[in-house]
């Protein structure tokens, strides 16, 4: 167990930054005009394919953006494997490609190398970062600062939700949308954080002794499942894995039993509707299901954390909030300080 200094309040930074998110989201939406100008430049280039490069929590934001690009823009999209460039020195032909590099710090050497190589090989490069003057932002042709402010906790919270919103506003503007589905997210985030307090506390007591948890979702919400599993693993050291609900049924469900806790992200829309078969299956195997989302009330689950309903394409911005609170609460209940997870630093530099 990580020792905690008596003069340190465990989790105070993570708790404070979770609470800042409604204001961060409202501020980012208010400044969407700058993002819309960048979207116009992307439209002029008429990309035929999109690639997304990221690591860690940002990789989950990139996964969300992949769904947005494919569904809202009708363009094929893929996630970059940075090692093809940093380890194997590949130089792919990236003409007519939009490369979006996502990094909260903007300082990861592998993402910098991917962006520089992509630009040199003909791609239109965009950096989405919380650090306006980062090496990544300077390497890309265009930069989208998410403006979340300094994040002290090692576990990303406000930078993650702000990155989701920035990516949505960018991609929505590329399709010449107005951002209307995101207009109320700041207020809805405040409502979600207020209303989830009791249910999260109940979930903390229910799962504080859990050894393993499976997070699952479909569609846009798959990114929320991935981020939830990461938060649980890095703060409370749970053995947490994330699966698409469809992939879970293709094999890993065999490992689900009465000792397995399942965190199911289920919001109103096609992705949430597709989760019904998944939840029926894991419940039949005896799993203890915690449902989170705007459709949680109607999900077959042992416990539920309902969220305000919004358009499905922006639901991940809200879905992650109770998951962050759950990770914080479980870490504290298990005697850990989520502000100082063992073996982790705020900026991870990989190649």
UniProtKB/TrEMBL annotation:
Residues 247-351 form the Pterin-binding domain. CDD domains: SIS_GlmS_GlmD_1, SIS_GlmS_GlmD_2. Residues 38-180, 203-341 form the SIS domain. InterPro entries: GlmS/AgaS_SIS (IPR035466), GlmS/FrlB_SIS (IPR035490), Pterin-binding_dom (IPR000489), SIS_dom (IPR001347), SIS_dom_sf (IPR046348). The keyword Repeat applies. Pfam families: SIS (PF01380). PROSITE patterns: PTERIN_BINDING (PS50972), SIS (PS51464). Keywords: Repeat. GO terms for biological process: carbohydrate derivative metabolic process; pteridine-containing compound metabolic process. This is Glutamine--fructose-6-phosphate transaminase. The lineage of its organism: Bacteria, Bacillati, Actinomycetota, Actinomycetes, Pseudonocardiales.
